[in-house]
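pasting for the record
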Amino acid sequence: MTVRVIFVAPAIGPELRQARFGGEGFVDGCDPLDPAGVRAARAAAPGLPAAARRFVSPSARCRRTAEELGISGAVDEPALRGCGTGRWSGRTLDEVAAEEPAAVLEWLADPAAAPHGGESVRQLCARVGAWLDGAAAALGGRVLVVAEPDVVRAAAVHALGVPDQAFRRLDVPPLAGVELTGRADRWNLRLGGPGTG
């Protein structure tokens, strides 16, 4: 059965602007999206294709992006959560690099490394790939997913069948869309905006 999975990255907010690990609302007292992110999501909403099934990474910024895009009934999907960053969660990349430069270099160079005590990029790619080949492929039809940028990157790595070293070479800007069409073990990737429909 063929499925069309359209991933949309979250709109811009404080955590993305600050390159902060986590994606779970670590900027105290801040909305997960800033006003520019809200405006951009609302402007992108009319271009989104209809989908019978809708999922969202379980983070405040993805939920809020889905809301501003007008995606109702999106289901939190734990398999599509952002990469677990252990003790680095809530901290900025600059903060961590200043305190643990060797650990950051290891993390950036080796997809199997998890010096923060969380999940490695390799584990993230495997988890997202398993969801694609299992749950998503079994659904059929059109599926819309608002997902953390690292989840979108992991999905692209899996779909292309490239080594996980390619993960860090993929940029996923706010509200970027990536469309995967196929079934378990056979995916085609189409790049574009949220309105890739």
